[in-house]
Amino acid sequence: MTEKRLKTGPLNLITDVPGVLVGNATDETVKTGVTILRCASSFVTAVDIRGGAPGARETDVLSPENLVGRADAIVLTGGSVFGLAAADGVVSVLSSKNIGLRLGVKGPAIPIVPAAVLHDLSNDGDKNWGETPPYRALGVKAAKCVGAEFTLGATGAGRGAMAGINKGGIGSVSLALENGIMVGALVAANPVGSVFMPDGKTFYAWPWELNSEYGAHTPTTARDNADPFPSHSRFSEQTQAGANTTIAIVATNAQLTNIEAKRIAIMAHDGIARAIRPAHTAFDGDIVFAVATAQKELPAGPEFSRQRLIARVGAAAADCLARSIARAVYEANY
Predict the structure, then answer these.
(1) pTM of the predicted model, to two decimals?
(2) What is the mean pLDDT of the chain?
(3) Cα separation, 243 vs 262, whole angstroms
């Protein structure tokens, strides 16, 4: 049997999913930033939270048992609790463009903008902002500069991030599946755990790398004999809950229901566990959003074939998220 050759999309970014756009805004003085994902229209959205210290906004509205189950944009941001204000800026920009829910004849459009935050308040950026944290303004800026191409590494929500003892950052990749289905991932990587094997060069995500996207470094030993708390993690420091997190978005052009998107988000968390050791600790606030632009119908077939295809998309999302985490750290450090 001939091995199937995996291919990325043309940009190898989440924006290879048609209709998806991304914008970064960075404050170099504060050493923080905001990253947003926008779609051409409101899109099916779900979320799964696995970290022990999450920081988020508007996640309950995405639950399958609730009314909306869709979003107009998703915000990833630094700044811990202060960063949640970035979503206010995005809401203002979108509403001014008449984007969002209409619950009556009168009143402005109501954009649904979930957000997730990471903690970058301990870096050496100037945090003396008094009563005017920069995040609302950064949200406005990011919302106004979305596009298909964007910068990776220490920028946007990843500007002040750390991955273990190394710089974290923004990472993104894509994967083209059969039947025209595209899957992509976007991540702001700030985990307490390590992304590197004990040699400090080989990413735990090395088996899933495509086209040397994060250095093509392979391990020199047959197995990882590291302690459960690897030396490149931050467990040797005074670790505090909420001071670390990996926040991410996976996207596909497949036509999914909200419940199916939730399954994709659940499966995508495996990518965090593949790329970071340890993952999903009490000190992390790991959150994964899953979005479906519903541009590509899943092929019809025998009983349970749809579920197999959804599993295929979920597995691809996990691989993409693992690759994105490694790529975020690679772009921030090399």
Answers:
(1) 0.93
(2) 90
(3) 26
